[in-house]
Amino acid sequence: MPNRLVVALAYDRLSTFEFGIAVEIFGLPRPEMGPDWYRFAVCAIEPGPLRAIGGFQVVADGGLELLEQADTIVIPGWRGAGSEPVPAALIEALRKAHARGARLMSICSGVFALAATGLLSGRRATTHWHYVDRLAGAYPDIRVEPDVLYVDEGRVLTSAGSAAGIDLCLHVVRADFGPEIANRLARRLVVPPHREGGQAQFIERPVPPAHEAVRFAPLFDRMRERLAQEQPIAELAREAGMSVRTFLRRFKAATGLPPGEWILAERLIRARELLETTHHSIESIAGATGFGSSATLRHHFRARLGTSPAAYRSRFSQDARPASSR
Fold this sequence. Notes:
By secondary structure, the chain is an alpha/beta fold. The protein contains 13 helices and 10 strands.
């Protein structure tokens, strides 16, 4: 059985929302997810009381010794967002955990605690848009990505502002248990099942007004059903009962993306699902998802995800995950 222990850091003036994300994703009992679901513990990085923002205190399960057992360590938003030093004992414990093979992930300004370890040197990382300049100035050896939701650098992962931490945690669940489990968990949380890490932090209106949702939802379903086909804008506008100009404006208002970009994102999501769950050839998957050729699929995979379809399948396919997580 794989080690599924997730340990979240707690400290005085704890960032409540980011800590709550870790608890919600990894800390709640979820028997419907099977016997190998995550175990969860809270690590106090210093003596109490540990006062969280909002007026309550956290009682931890233990101290830094918990990091010696953790498979995954979650660092919530860090107090002071880089203006306060990170305790030397925590830095050393995180370095040792990483050297042992643990996965380290930060949410929002938690990246400053992670950066203090030196483990992000030469790597890509992100944080809330409000802190990107501060992070880049303090750690010029980090390749700061200012306009993405999260960055996966293998065993070191970082996310942007608070809600992007949910996306990163679901990404981790997807890697550990596959898309079906991740999608089931997302439904429980009432959040989108997957947003690409490379998606911009700024979306004009990520949630459509009620009347737009009613009009566009059936069209979204039909568009997903025919990803392998060409979908001319004029035809989509006709289906929506709008002029092309009105359709383009209202589609972007509802989704944050032009129709072509939305279709591309949906094609990549479907291609990823097929790579994870089937043994179809990459050429076959390219055809089934509307990319036309494996070369075009590889191009978009590399541009959006920073990897190749073959490498993605090697890491995320059902065959690549331990049998107990399938």
